[in-house]
Design a protein that fits this description.
single chain; alpha/beta; Rossmann fold; 4-stranded mixed β-sheet; 11 helices; globular
């Protein structure tokens, strides 16, 4: 979870045909965390339970298998995925992160590169395929995936100038200004959990439009827990006027430094992303069974792949 403490992620909301950008860093610099937490508790009274600190997240084999069982009860396909260590090491050497991108998440190198490798393998891009990196910020995905496969990489972000400018696309991730069936692949890495209100559902619907038949959208990590909850730093959430999902526990974490982070349960994942789009897309969840063997600091245990029918 470390990158969520620092990464500046941007999200757009789609309300009745209008797009509204929010400021990720709309923090009250003079606010006291404890006082802001109490204010948030008062504002969310009778709507959400508010707690201080992270909930218990257990990365045990027992919990992981219990989550898979819950997914299967919802008739969600769940498959095991084992990272080949030699192949992963070859991927690292091919990209040469530490020389080419020395400042790119150097504090969280094993986790970020694991996410990149798994996404690369699941997308399986080919020469000439069109690929889009969602909420790309400074990510090397588009550049490196293009170099390694010959695909045509695009980068999308709210902070880019609106419209299409070369291979940069600015605007709402739920209203990408391209024709239907445009991309063969899309990646939302460390981003969809920050999509507030219904923007995660709207984004997935947009993927069902812009992907070609057989095109894939990879969401990684897929933050999954037995119970749904949100994480927030009230010093950002309150100035930003964040609206949390009704009835969902909200955990205030000082180090989070982000206004909103959604953890799905198998039920809410089905309700928000899968059920509204299952007529247009097939969904598979991959359990990365040896994520801790790659590095003990890793936490990316699930990825979601939506493939257009």
């Amino acid at each position: 979870m470390i990158e969520k403490f620092r990464k500046i992620l941007k999200v757009l909301f789609h309300r009745k045909g209008r797009t509204t950008a929010y400021r990720y860093r709309s923090k009250d610099n003079f606010a006291n965390f404890a006082k802001q937490t109490e204010i948030l508790k008062e504002r969310l009274k009778n709507k959400n339970e508010v707690f201080t600190g992270w909930p218990g997240i257990i990365y045990s084999e027992k919990e992981n298998k219990a989550l898979i069982t819950q997914l299967e009860k919802k008739k969600i396909t769940a498959l095991s995925y084992k990272v080949g260590k030699n192949e992963y090491e070859h991927f690292l050497s091919e990209i040469n992160y530490k020389k080419k991108y020395p400042r790119y998440y150097s504090f969280n190198f094993p986790e970020k590169t694991l996410e990149h490798f798994v996404a690369f393998k699941l997308l399986n891009l080919k020469k000439g395929d069109k690929f889009i990196d969602i909420a790309a910020e400074q990510s090397p995905h588009s550049r490196e995936f293009s170099r390694l496969t010959g695909c045509i990489g695009y980068r999308q972000d709210i902070m880019f100038r609106p419209g299409i400018h070369g291979r940069k696309i600015g605007g709402n991730a739920a209203e990408i200004p391209v024709a239907d069936n445009f991309f063969q692949g899309a990646l939302a890495a460390c981003s969809i959990e920050h999509f507030e209100k219904d923007s995660d559902s709207e984004f997935m619907r947009e993927m069902s439009r812009v992907l070609t038949k057989g095109g894939k959208c990879v969401i990684i990590p897929l933050y999954l827990h037995k119970n749904p909850f949100c994480v927030a730093d009230p010093r950002y959430s309150i100035p930003g006027g964040v609206k949390f999902d009704p009835g969902i526990d909200v955990h205030c974490v000082r180090e989070f430094q982000n206004r909103h982070g959604r953890y799905y349960s198998p039920d809410t994942l089905y309700q928000r992303l899968i059920e509204p789009n299952k007529s247009r897309m097939n969904f598979t969840i991959y359990y990365i069974e040896n994520f801790k063997e790659i590095d003990e600091s890793n936490y990316c245990r699930f990825a979601l792949v939506g493939e257009k029918k």
